[in-house]
Amino acid sequence: MRSIRFAVLVAAAGLVLTGCGDESDPGAGSSPSVPGPTSPTTSTPITSTPTATPGGAGLPLTVSRTGGFAGFNDQLVVGADGVVNVTQMGKPPSRCKLETGFLGTLTEAAKQVDWVSVGVTKPSVRHPDDMIIAVSSGAGLARLEDPKLKPLVTPVGTLLTEATKPGNLCKPV
Question: Rounded to an integer, what distance in angstroms lies between the CA atom of residue 139 and that of residue 117?
Answer without folding.
Answer: 9
